[in-house]
Amino acid sequence: MSLGDAKRLIIKVGSALLVDETTGKLRRAWLEALADDVAALRERGTEVIIVSSGAIAMGRRLLGLDHRTISLADKQAAAATGQISLSQVWQEALHRNGLIMAQVLVTLEDMESRQRYLNARGTLNALLGHGAIPLINENDTVATAEIRFGDNDRLAAKVAHMISADMLVLLSDIDGLYTADPRKNPDAELIPEVRELTPEIMSMAGAAPTMYSSGGMVTKLLAAEIAMKSGCRMMIARGTIYHPLKAQLDGGLHTLFQPSETPLAARRHWIATSLSARGAIVIDAGAVNALRAGKNLLAPGITTLQGSFKQGDAVRVLASDGVEVARGLSAYSADETRQLMGHNSHDIEPILGYSRGNAIIHSDDLVLAEG
Ligand code: GLU
Q1: pLDDT tens per residue, range 332-361
Q2: Which residues bind substrate (predicted)?
Q3: Which of 62, 137, 197, 207 has the greatest number of beta carbons closer than 10 A?
Q4: Quick one: fold of 3-263?
Q5: What is 275-368's CATH superfamily?
Q6: How far apart, in Å, do the first and last CA atoms of the chain sit?
Q7: Whose CA is nearest to atom 7 of ligand 1?
Q8: Percentage of the chain surpassing pLDDT 70?
Q9: Which ligand 1 atom is the nearest neighbour of the CA of 52?
Q10: Which of 10, 15, 74 to mutate to test the pocket of ligand 1 (most atoms within 8 A of CB)?
Q11: Ranges of each domain in the chain
């Protein structure tokens, strides 16, 4: 599996690549070359999402703030200032290639509240469906120290989980994971592939981050852990060169972290094992057959509800005899579902005044019970 086989690809670009450490200026020509690579991948039919850092670094320069003494409030002020410039340069670079960019700012809370998580996922899926390139960063302006990701490596991996991406590329200032720090140890060797995050692998992440990067190798391995659990392959590759993605398509050096499951299998595993069900939806025999045939759970097949649940909660889906048929994430709350059950799917909007789609539970969010 190489970059060229990815269907849904997330590319994470760190501040240290975007902003020149000595002058503090944006490396525009490099960014334009990367945007050309993104356009080439889109041409091949790959969906691309960019997670870009750089807001704080750019804003700091615009506001004339010293990175050694910067307070949290000033960091957030810098993010608010720099994010506009960051978005603008990305937009210009992608627009040159005829691509439409959309800015999405997220916080850790957005990923942890399943309601917001499902909404963010719906928006990202819609953007990708329209052929746009989402540009994602943390919403640093509102995220306080305790609730911040603080590093976009893990943020990118969480996004990969959220939208079931099959590949995440972390562009770095190094070719990949080495057995030791290659700047200090000439015997250090690049590890081309990792299938399991053993303690030995984890201990290889020792290098300290540079001035502009919050991560270093430690957060990259933490990101690998999230990505692998989500069934997403993760690649660490050198981003300091021009056209770093093209270099990978041409067979460049990297470390590839290989998960054991596909994103969909991993997602279903997560729904089945990590989430506790809040309530139950009872469905008729026709709906049972539809679910078993891989279809969405729709309102007409629902006969009764048990308990209460919110949008995004995990619920049990029962046949009329009480046997559990499936579990899934409900796109509608119990109150909403109660109003919709038994009705035709195209009545959702007239009944509620809005719609989050026809599926009460989408088949991607549904795990059939064994047997
Ligand atoms: N969100 C931060 C920014 O845009 C960067 C976080 C990181 O360096 O990974 O400046």
Answers
A1: 999 999 999 999 999 999 999 999 899 999
A2: 53, 140, 152
A3: 137
A4: Carbamate kinase (3.40.1160)
A5: PUA domain (2.30.130.10)
A6: 33
A7: 151
A8: 95
A9: 4
A10: 15
A11: 3-263, 275-368
